[in-house]
Amino acid sequence: MPALSVVVPVKDEAGNVGPLAREIAAAVAGEDAEIIFVDDGSTDGTDAALLALKADIAGLRVIRHANNRGQSRAVRSGVRAANSELVVTLDGDGQNDPADIPSLISELRRGGPMLGLVAGVRRKRKDTASKRIASRVGNGVRQWLLKDGATDSGCGLKAFRREAFLALPYFDHIHRFLITMMLREGYEVRYVGVNHRPRLSGRSKYNNLNRMLVGINDLMGVRWLQRRHRGRTEAKEL
To answer: What is the pLDDT of residue 149?
Structure first.
């Protein structure tokens, strides 16, 4: 059984997966690790690019969705397929820096069993000004409504316990609310500052408008889940 599983959801990232996979392999070279790319219905040859890497990168696994089902579904498919209790996720566009993986895993290992999640917080974002402004506004609204302490909910670089993730109620777009849901289930969440890089190939799958429209519904749903939770308890067989 590997000591670490790295899960990377990708959609139409044929130009990024090669360099990214090699960077991840270098970052976890000291670990007994598996690297799981989940191709979420790409149409640009991302799957072929990944399969070509398997001969060179030990522990590389490729999972493919027959249809595009979104980032959260891809993350869940990867976590369900993971063979390690410790999981790291990062975005497939190359903007998250794999060199930060050891810092997150080290922090997760230092915590007890109730440390469910270590979330990356991007120090200097390399996005457009409009995206940074939209993110600042969105995080402000989110904080006002959910009060979960998250200042960078959109950072894809996270380390968590597989058991904790699979205990969460699943819904599409949950990847943006992992902090809230972990806290809801009684887990501790910690934060680590991480690097952020410009996208070098391909294009973003999101824009400010579609994030806002989807985000409003998601916020209302997550707030409902918070209100309907009666707290964590231990179950013991007598």
So the answer is: 79
The label of the residue with tokens 């000591």 reads 3
Query: Which token pair is 183?
Result: 């806290």
Cβ–Cβ under 8 Å, residues 54 and 31: no
Local confidence band at 154 (pLDDT 50, 70, 90 cut-offs): confident
Q: For the chain, give every domain's residue range.
A: 4-227
Q: Strand 60-65's sheet: what is its strand order?
A: 60-65, 33-40, 4-10, 86-89, 158-161, 115-122, 188-194
What pLDDT shows up at residue 208?
Answer: 47
CATH architecture of 4-227: Alpha-Beta Complex (3.90)
Task: List the structure tokens of 122.
Answer: 């991007």
DSSP code for 169 = P
Answer yes or no: are the C-beta atoms of 10 and 40 closer than 8 Å.
yes
Q: Coil, strand or helix: which one is 173?
A: coil
